[in-house]
Amino acid sequence: MSPAYKRILLKLSGEALRSETLDIDPAVVRQVASEIKSVRDDGVEIGIVIGGGNIFRGFSASARGMDRVTADHMGMLATVINSLALQDFLEREGVQTRVMSAVRLDAMAEPFIRRRAIRHLEKGRVVIFAAGTGNPYFTTDSAAALRAIEICASAVLKATKVDGVYDSDPVENKDAAKYQSITYAEVLQKQLKVMDATAVTLCRENRLPIIVFRLLDRGNLKRVVFGEKLGTIVQGDSHG
Q1: DSSP letter (8 states) at residue 207
Q2: Residue 222 host element (H or E)
Q3: Which end of the chain offers a freer environment for a tag, N or C, measured as fewer CB atoms within 10 Å?
């Protein structure tokens, strides 16, 4: 059986790497790395974008009075910290990994160059895209959509702590209904918290499906990559 998606862009939140006691929990990062390795070993080409919210949120800081551009630059650096942590654990698993940064950090990461990134993927290396888009006012969701389009990914896989997209917050509302699939237009119209509007619009314009699923259930990433109906898929077709 071959994977349904040959090249993916995996979007991780910074929160995916933390635990109740640690902003970056080695045990959690090790599990994430193991899940990624299992898919890479099946021949899937993997690009990754990680948020920085476990360390610093630029938008939240600007709301508390910090200059927005400065705060966003600090948020970009937080994503670099997370990217280096994940690279370390992937390479401990024997997975060749490259961190490519949207801002110049030559001692720690390669600069993002599209053709070089694609070549790394073709050679079986996992590529982690750090520092967002390199521009303030853009989220790592937007960076994930942008990089996915640039590397010609088959899908954006949005890994979260919940098992899909709901019509309301399932933590606060036990009667929240889960969507198996939903259109880009409905996500935007209903202001569902899948990815930000810029990211969803980019994916819609480029017909790039978004699959939202729970990462830390062992084997979920592989099940999604092999086409199992897991989580919620956002695409242009009518929802079910």
Answers
A1: T
A2: helix 220-225
A3: N
